[in-house]
Amino acid sequence: MKRRDVIIARVFFSDSTNSKVRPAIVLSDDEYNASDYLLVSAITSASDDYTLLISGKDANCQLEEGSGARFDGIVKLHKKQVVRGIGRITPEFYSKLVERIIYVLK
Question: pTM of the full predicted structure?
Fold first, then answer.
């Protein structure tokens, strides 16, 4: 897996009791990704103030219309949770997503 890959993964809810298979964007760099883990931003169809909408020009894969990347919670996934890769987001979208993550952290 590489930074900017869109993957399908089993993501656990914050209470860690249940999980859902959903798309996510790999945020971590190649050095981090060489470990057993990835840092990702979950993709959701539930839009709010902490979701960056993904348009057709932002990714080279099919996502549900109205999907967006969460920028208020970075998730650490074990690579065993990854089902498969489905595409990539553009460098421009990745930059916007990182800017929003940094904004929330400031």
Answer: 0.92
